[in-house]
Amino acid sequence: MSQYPLHIWSTLPTITTPLSLLGSSAILYVISRSNDKLSTTLNRLLVGLCVGDIIFSFSMLITKFIVKLEDRGSGPVPGTTNWAACKTQGFLLYAGGHMSICYNCALCVYYVCVIKLNYSDTKIKKKVEPFLHAIPWAYAIIFSSCALATKSINPGISMCMVAEYRPQDCESDDCVRGLDYYLKFRLADVSIMIIVFIAIILMMTVVYLKVWRQERRMRNAGYRSTNSVRNSGLEVSMIAGRQNQQAQANNSFNLSLRLSLRKNVTNSRKVLNQAMAYAGAYLATWIFYICSVLIILFGGDSVTIALIATFVGPLQGKSQMR
Questions:
Q1: 305 in Cβ contact with 198 (< 8 Å)
Q2: I need a surface site. Which of 106, 152, 300, 318 has the fewest CB within 10 A?
Q3: Taking residues 274-291, what's their average pLDDT?
Q4: CATH code for position 307
Q5: What's the structural domain count of the chain?
């Protein structure tokens, strides 16, 4: 990592995390001032996403006060000024990060239920929403607790995270912290991200196809309505009485159908755009981290990508702003 100044790794997160905290706080403020507040499933999911992002961003904000570089003679290596603070940062980092990841997926599940499955708010609240909250919290706490219990959270070049750490007086692998679990936790970390990545793409594809079909139905209904109006004009000039009234009734029905379809499609398109925005925020934020971990696991050099991931990682809160 000598191609970049070592201090830049702990400096970059402190630049972008305030933007993330600002974005998440702004969303919470908007929700608190809205008429719905926490009465809707969407708002409750957004609150969960913002809470996870705030925990994640705050843990990165204090990295400058925790991580230091120790001179071991052969060169500087990551160290810490306070082990308790380092462990706390690592725990909050993974707890908040995994909550944000899972809540991004939960939002996509919600949009599938609304657009594709046409579930009512009551049905989503009773049968779907409890899982959308329980899974992110449970997974985040279990992963972070296991990493902490196995002594896998150690000083890294940019922050305290799942990493190997060799104490200064350690001469054998037996005293290296995190040696046995480092790769396992990194693999588990990137696996959940890839699973969510694929799930989001699949769910957004399903939602998009549903809206596209609705739009096609509306266009077809408009075409039929136009033909009906044209034919009814001929009938008015040729047929009187009840047939004319029937033609007017048909026109009224076609107009009603078009208005109903247009309303449904407009609402679906609006919800789809919102869903795409949240999904895009997740993909843009975490893609560099996923790539860097995969390169490391396969023995490659991912210094530049890892540096970009360190910079853009905290920006999810900013990108979630509506």
A1: no
A2: 300
A3: 75
A4: 1.20.1070.10
A5: 1
Q: Which residues pair with 162 in a beta bridge?
A: 153
Degrees (nearest 5) of the Cα angle 144, 150, 156?
A: 70
Please report the pLDDT score of residue 222 as a whole number.
61
Residue 79 bridge partners (DSSP): 68
- Categorize the per-residue pLDDT at 314 as very low, low, confident or very high, splitting at 50, 70 and 90: low
Contact between residue 55 and residue 71 where contact means Cβ atoms under 8 Å apart:
no
Neighbours of 322 (CB within 10 A): 10
Q: Please, are residues 6 and 86 in contact by the beta-carbon 8 Å criterion? A: no
Cα separation of 59 and 13, whole Å? 10
**Interacting residues of 63 by C-beta distance below 8 A, sequence separation 6+:** 10, 13, 14, 89, 158, 159, 160
**Which pair of tokens denotes residue 241?**
């009485």
**Are the CB atoms for 317 and 50 separated by under 8 Å?**
yes
Inter-axis angle of helices 83-111 and 41-61, to 10 degrees?
Answer: 150
As a whole number of angstroms, the distance between CA 192 and CA 290 comes to 10
pTM of the model: 0.78
Which residues lie below 8 Å from residue 293, measured CB to CB, with a gap of 6+?
A: 186, 189, 190, 302
Residues 176 and 30 sit within 8 Å (Cβ to Cβ):
no
Residue 243: what residue type? Answer: Q
* 320 close to 53: Cβ distance less than 8 angstroms: yes
DSSP 177: B
Dihedral sign, CA of 57, 62, 63, 66? negative
In-domain check, residue 248? no
Q: How far apart are CA 42 and CA 165, in angstroms?
A: 42
Give the domain range for residue 141.
7-196+276-319
Q: Nearest-CA neighbor of 13 among 89, 87, 76, 77?
A: 89
Give the integer Cα–Cα distance in Å for 157 and 2. Answer: 12
Decide if 112 is inside a domain. yes
